[in-house]
Amino acid sequence: MNALLGIFYHAIGGFAAGSFYIPYSKVKSWAWEVYWLLGGFFSWIIAPWIVSLIVVPDLPGLLNSIPINNLIWPYIFGVLWGIGGLTFGLTMRFLGMSLGMAMALGLTAAFGTLVPPVYFGEFGNLITHTSGLVTLGGVAVSFIGIILTGKAGLLKDKELTEEQKKGSIKEFNLKTGIWVAFFAGIMSASFAFGIAAGKPIATLAIEQGTPVLFSNSPLFIVIMAGGFTTNFIWCVFLGIKNKTYKAVFTSKDAPVISNIIFSALAGITWYFQFMFYGMGTTKMGKYDFASWSIHMAFIIIFSNMWGLILKEWKGSSKRTLRYVIIGILILILSTFIIGAGNYIQSFE
Hints:
Blueprint lengths: L1 H18 L12 H24 L3 H7 L2 H28 L1 H23 L3 H4 L3 H30 L2 H7 L5 H15 L1 H8 L1 H9 L9 H26 L4 H4 L5 H26 L9 H19 L8 H28 L3
């Protein structure tokens, strides 16, 4: 039952991740770097501090008691994760939402799921236990679903005329996009590495009275500070280069209050994915390494569902739509297989 609850939390986190960009579409007359940085401030600074102040009995005391070595690596992985977030945006730029999302998240899932147990020397134990093999099988099935949704995106792009391509993806470049997606996949997986490196922080939080369910909350402060650092530097650079910050309060067409509200809503929704992801990892037992794969699977599920609802696949062939639907169903199946692996673990 704990594994099922963990998967449920991951589903909520995946829904948040697959939905967070929608409020940004309501922002008017602001450049990307402006609303992205504002949303990031709510997501990576304000939200983790507010949640941690609520759930951690003595947050300042906890942070002061953490050895500096336990803070450095989660922060560094956060900086790398921030780079992944920026290059993830470039992937969307060169490949489009459907193909770019599937390729980048597929690579992120692969690195984020398999590297931690290899790094900690636990991979051998996985392949010698039934529960580990079932869990790894679920991860493999999730990759099949990711590949199928990626295939659907590729078919969609092939079905468009050159004029339609320029209309939907102005800078479409398959070769460049694949290389950027590969880099984004590696860097974005750094969030999972940050969680693994920051386990001593979560353990200390529990020892000082933080509920186990929210034990990752103070760790998120450190990881997301690293991510905010990267995005802050890049967005400020773009703002100065493009002189876009001048238009924030001077543009007559920019509804400042509503833009701030929608940016904040997008940022807070973005944070929820990690809050519920962190909650889910506390329920996955010994094989919580599979949490990242589940998280990626749910993001693809919900982002593609939004794509269908918002008619992003309008005009695609029935064959393409079949790939999308089958891919989503296989991703859902993979979460149940991983849950079964965690259930079997309780009897070993």
